[in-house]
Design brief:
This is HupE / UreJ protein. 77% of the residues lie in helices and 0% in strands. The protein has 196 residues and is an all-alpha fold.
Length: 196
Protein backbone atom coordinates (compact mmCIF):
# COMPACT_ATOMS: atom_id res chain seq x y z
CA UNK A 1 0.00 0.00 0.00
CA UNK A 2 2.76 2.44 1.01
CA UNK A 3 4.76 1.30 -2.02
CA UNK A 4 1.82 2.19 -4.29
CA UNK A 5 1.44 5.55 -2.55
CA UNK A 6 5.10 6.46 -3.16
CA UNK A 7 4.93 5.20 -6.73
CA UNK A 8 1.97 7.50 -7.48
CA UNK A 9 3.54 10.49 -5.70
CA UNK A 10 6.79 9.87 -7.60
CA UNK A 11 4.83 9.70 -10.85
CA UNK A 12 3.46 13.18 -10.10
CA UNK A 13 6.92 14.51 -9.26
CA UNK A 14 8.38 13.04 -12.47
CA UNK A 15 5.51 14.49 -14.52
CA UNK A 16 6.59 18.01 -13.50
CA UNK A 17 10.35 17.43 -13.59
CA UNK A 18 10.38 15.52 -16.92
CA UNK A 19 13.17 17.09 -18.97
CA UNK A 20 11.39 16.19 -22.23
CA UNK A 21 8.23 18.02 -21.19
CA UNK A 22 9.66 21.17 -19.69
CA UNK A 23 6.53 23.27 -20.36
CA UNK A 24 5.44 22.75 -16.76
CA UNK A 25 8.77 24.06 -15.46
CA UNK A 26 8.63 27.06 -17.81
CA UNK A 27 5.15 27.93 -16.56
CA UNK A 28 6.33 27.75 -12.93
CA UNK A 29 9.37 29.93 -13.70
CA UNK A 30 7.14 32.55 -15.33
CA UNK A 31 4.68 32.36 -12.43
CA UNK A 32 7.34 32.59 -9.69
CA UNK A 33 9.99 34.99 -11.05
CA UNK A 34 8.26 38.24 -9.95
CA UNK A 35 8.29 37.14 -6.30
CA UNK A 36 10.77 37.04 -3.42
CA UNK A 37 11.05 34.64 -0.47
CA UNK A 38 9.00 37.00 1.70
CA UNK A 39 6.07 36.44 -0.73
CA UNK A 40 6.16 32.67 -0.15
CA UNK A 41 2.55 32.45 1.09
CA UNK A 42 1.24 34.11 -2.04
CA UNK A 43 3.45 31.96 -4.29
CA UNK A 44 2.36 28.78 -2.49
CA UNK A 45 -1.27 29.79 -2.94
CA UNK A 46 -0.70 30.46 -6.66
CA UNK A 47 1.05 27.12 -7.16
CA UNK A 48 -1.76 25.36 -5.26
CA UNK A 49 -4.34 27.02 -7.54
CA UNK A 50 -2.41 25.61 -10.49
CA UNK A 51 -2.39 22.12 -8.91
CA UNK A 52 -6.12 22.43 -8.19
CA UNK A 53 -6.87 23.28 -11.82
CA UNK A 54 -4.55 20.52 -13.06
CA UNK A 55 -6.16 17.93 -10.77
CA UNK A 56 -9.69 19.10 -11.59
CA UNK A 57 -9.17 18.58 -15.31
CA UNK A 58 -7.65 15.12 -14.64
CA UNK A 59 -10.71 14.21 -12.54
CA UNK A 60 -13.03 15.35 -15.35
CA UNK A 61 -11.02 13.35 -17.89
CA UNK A 62 -10.63 10.25 -15.67
CA UNK A 63 -14.40 10.00 -15.19
CA UNK A 64 -15.06 10.74 -18.90
CA UNK A 65 -16.91 13.97 -18.06
CA UNK A 66 -14.85 16.00 -20.49
CA UNK A 67 -12.91 15.22 -23.62
CA UNK A 68 -10.91 17.86 -25.43
CA UNK A 69 -9.08 17.88 -28.74
CA UNK A 70 -5.43 17.17 -27.82
CA UNK A 71 -4.12 19.35 -30.67
CA UNK A 72 -5.88 22.45 -29.31
CA UNK A 73 -4.69 21.75 -25.76
CA UNK A 74 -1.08 21.19 -26.91
CA UNK A 75 -1.29 24.59 -28.62
CA UNK A 76 -2.86 26.35 -25.62
CA UNK A 77 -0.21 25.14 -23.15
CA UNK A 78 2.71 27.14 -24.64
CA UNK A 79 0.32 30.04 -25.36
CA UNK A 80 -0.59 30.16 -21.66
CA UNK A 81 3.10 30.20 -20.69
CA UNK A 82 3.75 32.94 -23.25
CA UNK A 83 0.93 35.08 -21.79
CA UNK A 84 2.26 34.81 -18.21
CA UNK A 85 5.85 35.59 -19.29
CA UNK A 86 4.67 38.52 -21.44
CA UNK A 87 2.61 39.83 -18.52
CA UNK A 88 5.82 39.76 -16.43
CA UNK A 89 7.71 41.75 -19.08
CA UNK A 90 5.07 44.48 -19.18
CA UNK A 91 4.60 44.66 -15.40
CA UNK A 92 8.20 44.12 -14.20
CA UNK A 93 9.04 46.55 -11.42
CA UNK A 94 5.51 47.92 -11.23
CA UNK A 95 4.33 45.81 -8.30
CA UNK A 96 1.48 44.35 -10.37
CA UNK A 97 1.91 40.96 -8.67
CA UNK A 98 0.67 42.50 -5.43
CA UNK A 99 -2.57 43.76 -6.99
CA UNK A 100 -5.78 42.09 -8.10
CA UNK A 101 -5.39 38.73 -6.44
CA UNK A 102 -8.57 37.50 -8.15
CA UNK A 103 -7.36 37.94 -11.73
CA UNK A 104 -3.96 36.32 -11.12
CA UNK A 105 -5.39 33.41 -9.14
CA UNK A 106 -8.24 32.72 -11.57
CA UNK A 107 -5.89 32.84 -14.55
CA UNK A 108 -3.52 30.43 -12.74
CA UNK A 109 -6.44 28.07 -12.07
CA UNK A 110 -7.41 28.29 -15.76
CA UNK A 111 -3.82 27.55 -16.87
CA UNK A 112 -3.82 24.57 -14.49
CA UNK A 113 -6.97 23.26 -16.18
CA UNK A 114 -5.34 23.57 -19.61
CA UNK A 115 -2.12 21.87 -18.51
CA UNK A 116 -4.09 19.06 -16.85
CA UNK A 117 -6.08 18.45 -20.04
CA UNK A 118 -2.78 18.17 -21.91
CA UNK A 119 -1.82 15.25 -19.68
CA UNK A 120 -5.27 13.63 -19.44
CA UNK A 121 -4.77 10.96 -22.12
CA UNK A 122 -1.52 9.66 -20.62
CA UNK A 123 -3.02 9.82 -17.13
CA UNK A 124 -6.07 7.78 -18.19
CA UNK A 125 -3.69 5.06 -19.41
CA UNK A 126 -1.89 5.22 -16.05
CA UNK A 127 -5.20 4.79 -14.20
CA UNK A 128 -6.17 1.80 -16.34
CA UNK A 129 -9.00 -0.14 -14.73
CA UNK A 130 -8.17 1.06 -11.21
CA UNK A 131 -11.02 1.06 -8.69
CA UNK A 132 -9.39 3.82 -6.63
CA UNK A 133 -9.21 6.58 -9.24
CA UNK A 134 -9.73 9.36 -6.71
CA UNK A 135 -6.97 8.07 -4.37
CA UNK A 136 -4.60 7.76 -7.34
CA UNK A 137 -5.47 11.30 -8.44
CA UNK A 138 -4.82 12.72 -4.97
CA UNK A 139 -1.49 10.91 -4.62
CA UNK A 140 -0.47 12.09 -8.08
CA UNK A 141 -1.54 15.67 -7.20
CA UNK A 142 0.61 15.49 -4.06
CA UNK A 143 3.59 14.56 -6.24
CA UNK A 144 2.85 17.49 -8.57
CA UNK A 145 2.64 19.88 -5.62
CA UNK A 146 5.95 18.63 -4.16
CA UNK A 147 7.77 19.01 -7.49
CA UNK A 148 6.30 22.48 -7.98
CA UNK A 149 7.45 23.57 -4.52
CA UNK A 150 10.99 22.37 -5.41
CA UNK A 151 10.98 24.41 -8.64
CA UNK A 152 9.50 27.47 -6.92
CA UNK A 153 12.16 27.25 -4.21
CA UNK A 154 14.93 27.04 -6.85
CA UNK A 155 13.54 30.06 -8.76
CA UNK A 156 13.19 32.11 -5.55
CA UNK A 157 16.67 31.07 -4.42
CA UNK A 158 18.24 31.98 -7.79
CA UNK A 159 16.37 35.29 -7.69
CA UNK A 160 17.78 35.94 -4.22
CA UNK A 161 21.35 35.14 -5.34
CA UNK A 162 21.14 37.20 -8.52
CA UNK A 163 19.63 40.19 -6.73
CA UNK A 164 21.93 40.16 -3.67
CA UNK A 165 25.27 38.80 -4.88
CA UNK A 166 25.20 40.11 -8.44
CA UNK A 167 23.22 43.26 -7.65
CA UNK A 168 20.67 42.67 -10.42
CA UNK A 169 17.60 44.80 -9.95
CA UNK A 170 14.40 42.83 -9.40
CA UNK A 171 13.01 44.38 -12.59
CA UNK A 172 15.99 43.20 -14.67
CA UNK A 173 15.82 39.70 -13.18
CA UNK A 174 12.11 39.42 -14.03
CA UNK A 175 12.69 40.80 -17.55
CA UNK A 176 15.63 38.50 -18.35
CA UNK A 177 14.06 35.29 -17.06
CA UNK A 178 10.68 36.07 -18.65
CA UNK A 179 12.40 36.85 -21.97
CA UNK A 180 14.20 33.47 -21.82
CA UNK A 181 10.87 31.72 -21.18
CA UNK A 182 9.29 33.61 -24.12
CA UNK A 183 12.22 32.60 -26.32
CA UNK A 184 11.71 28.95 -25.40
CA UNK A 185 7.92 28.86 -25.87
CA UNK A 186 7.68 30.68 -29.21
CA UNK A 187 9.12 27.65 -31.09
CA UNK A 188 6.70 25.39 -29.16
CA UNK A 189 3.79 27.54 -30.37
CA UNK A 190 5.03 27.73 -33.95
CA UNK A 191 5.76 23.99 -34.14
CA UNK A 192 2.41 22.89 -32.68
CA UNK A 193 0.22 20.64 -34.83
CA UNK A 194 -2.60 23.15 -34.39
CA UNK A 195 -0.77 25.64 -36.66
CA UNK A 196 0.44 22.96 -39.07
Amino acid sequence: MLQDFWFNVEYGVNHVLDINAYDHVLFLIALTVPYLFKDWKRVLLLVSMFTLGHTLSLVLAAYNIVSVNATIVEFLIPVSIFIVALYNVFTAGKGAQKEKVGVLFLSTLFFGLIHGLGFAREFKMFLGKSDNKLILLLEFALGIELAQIIIVFIVLFLGYLVQTLFRFSKRDWVMVLSAIVIGLVIPMILNSDYLA
